[in-house]
Amino acid sequence: MIDQSRSNMKTIISSIQRMCDIGYCNHFFSVLGVARDRKRVANLVPISIQRLREISSLSNTEVCSKFLSELGFVPPEDYEPPAEDSENALELVATTIVKVLDLAVVSYSGAHLQDFHEKGLHAALYDDKPIKVTTNLFLRKRSLQCLDGYLGQKQVWTFEAIGSTDPDLAPLYLSTTMTTFADIWGPAWAVKEQAQASESSDHVHDSQKIIQYFDIGKGALISWLRTKDDPELLSDEVFAHWLPNKFEISPIASLPNLKHDQKFLIGAKVKFTVNNECPLIIRDCTKLLRNGGRLHELYTRRKRVYVDSTIVAASISLPSVQFGGQIQVKTREANHVKSARVAAWIHRPSQRNPSLISDWYGVEVSICTDNARRRPLVPSACL
User: Fold this and answer.
1) How far is CA 217 from CA 221, 268, 289, 379, in A?
2) Which of 76, 159, 274, 293 could bridge to 33 as Cys pair (CB 3.0-4.6 Å)?
3) What is the pLDDT of residues 213-236, one digit of tens each?
């Protein structure tokens, strides 16, 4: 049995090496697992390929047990046999390592998102039901908190200990470093804001600049205020939230001073709701803002007054001459960008460009709170 586990271990390392050769990963791969001590948190755990080579012989029970313990989600009873069965300790821990790594590599190859049963990547994954890995561990699909939107509402394959799952399967928080996150779901860029230069220096070193946020996809990862309903932070964690719109970031928002490869707990519960009982009428509010000089709309042509026609008449009746004239003035109403786009869409169907409605031309304003945020035209057009 131990020989079969060692053979399987070589196959697993060979598969990872092939992913490295084609550039899919670098010197590590990652696995998702629900922390044993924090049931609402999924850890994105990096596994060094060098570390796998060190334990590939599966000959040291203590070393193998330490590896499983460091993953943080494998129940100890699955690799620590009772005292009366210590002779089978190495076989038990080796079998557990191979089973976990086998599914971990398959999950990683699909970015922890792919429906394996549809792609035929693993014989055991016929559907989305939990997959039993060991006696007390299974692999199942779970949703993430705010990152659910970043991943296109797709669930992620996550290792969980039996009995550790919340009955309501609430979305999980994600604990990870930006390096591990970017490896599988990146890229991610740190957007820095230059700090004030000292009087004795005209330049600020890049290391002294403050990271305002991480640019990820169409949105951004920013620091967020933790509430009492959120999980407790570990000593090396920073609470963070992924915003689907980087234009919503406050100009003064910034991440705290970060150390190398800082760990983040991502998953703030932020929901915008519509007050259906609001008595305000949009038309009246728009007029109020415009009259108060607080509404500045984009124009293709501003409102103006122009001379439409001029009539000049002269009457001669000797010995006197009379002159007269008439000027007709008209007002040309303003033409807003919104009206111009709608008119072009209606009257020039051959030139319609559907991608325009996904651009961030709209502004959503809350009259009740005086808050505003930039929005694409798609949701605005659906109001």
Assistant:
1) 10, 18, 34, 19
2) 159
3) 888 877 888 888 888 889 999 888
DSSP character at residue 355: G
The pLDDT value recorded for residue 172 is: 93
Residue pLDDT, tens place only, 55-105: 988 888 889 999 999 998 998 888 887 665 666 888 889 999 999 999 999
| Every domain of the chain and the residues it spans | 2-179, 187-266, 282-381
SS3 328: strand
215, 220, 219, 259: which is closest to 237 by C-alpha? 259
372 strand-pairing partners: 365
pLDDT band at residue 201 using 50, 70 and 90 as cut-offs = very low
- Cβ-count burial of 248 within 10 angstroms (0-12 exposed, 13-18 middle, 19+ buried)? middle
Angle in degrees, CA 77, 84, 79, rounded to 5: 25
The more confidently predicted of residues 283 and 53 is 53
How far is the C-alpha of 27 from the C-alpha of 17, rounded, in Å? 9
Alpha helices in 133-207 (DSSP H): 147-150, 178-185
Separation between Cα atoms, residue 254 and residue 264, nearest integer Å: 14
Element (H, E) at 377: helix 377-381
The count of other CB atoms within 10 Å of the CB of residue 286 is 14
Mean pLDDT is lowest, of 13-22, 264-273, 360-369, for 360-369
